[in-house]
Structure formats: C-alpha cells, structure tokens
Amino acid sequence: MIRAARPGDAAQVAACASSAYARYIPLIGRKPAPMLADVPAQIAAGQVSVWDGDGGVLGYTVAFAHEGAWFLESIAVAPEAAGRGIGRALMQHFEDSGRAQGFSRATLYTNAKMVENLAIYPHLGYEETARRIEGGFDRVWFAKAL
Fold this sequence. Notes:
A hairpin with a 2-residue loop joins strand 6 and strand 7. The protein has about 150 residues and is α+β, with helices and mostly antiparallel strands. Helix content is about 35%, strand content about 35%. It is globular and about 35 Å long. It is built from six helices and seven strands. Strands 1-2-3-4-5-7-6 form a seven-stranded mixed beta sheet.
C-alpha cells in the first residue's frame, strides 16, 4: 500500500497534511511547516511516498538526502486513519528506503510544541541531537543509525 506519490496525488497529500497538522496551529501560533509545503514540487522531485488505502491517500512521508543523511522532512497520517499502524509502516518504509540507498544515518525534526512526538521518536530508536529555531519554528532534531 506504500508507493511513490504521483502528480495526481498532490491534492490528497496536501489535504492529509492539513487535517493531520491542523491541531497544532493553536500550539505553535501558525501553520506547521508541512502545511506550507509545495507538495507538487516535492512529488516532482521524487520525495513523497504515500499510503494508498481504500479511501485514497491516508498517510505520507517526504524524505530526501540532507547533509549526508536520509532526512524525514514530514510524516503524517489522516486523523480518520490513526491507530491502524500506518504511521509505523511509513516510518519503516522511510528507514528501509534510506538503507536501500546506502545511508547509514536517518535524521528528522519535530516542533518542540508537538510533545507527543518528543516521546514517539525516542521509542523508535531516535536520539535527540539538537534544538534550534529555524524559519521561526522551534525544532527538535533527532537521528538514528540505520
């Protein structure tokens, strides 16, 4: 069910991002970065993988090489599909893709206000490596050996 996104998926990926990240707007005080992304450009660059379910795109990742590591820029699961293992499968796909491309390290960040992520990523074997403000966002960086 996980596949490379196609140009026709852009609207569904953007809708997934909007529905998944909307709850963070009051916490952050603005739209989270994934809600502002140029999804068609990310798809054209081959950076987007989607979980394609019965109802269309139910989750996605945006990943690419960054500073010598396999970088997860964004991951989201539609709220109506939460709790079905889609997020875990997308994370596994992200890591497997990085290994397949020869990367020995995966990196990602989350917003410091997304406190549940601060617990999830260490549970998945990621270690916090930095905290910094980037583009007005308070980001917490994580890394994991692949």
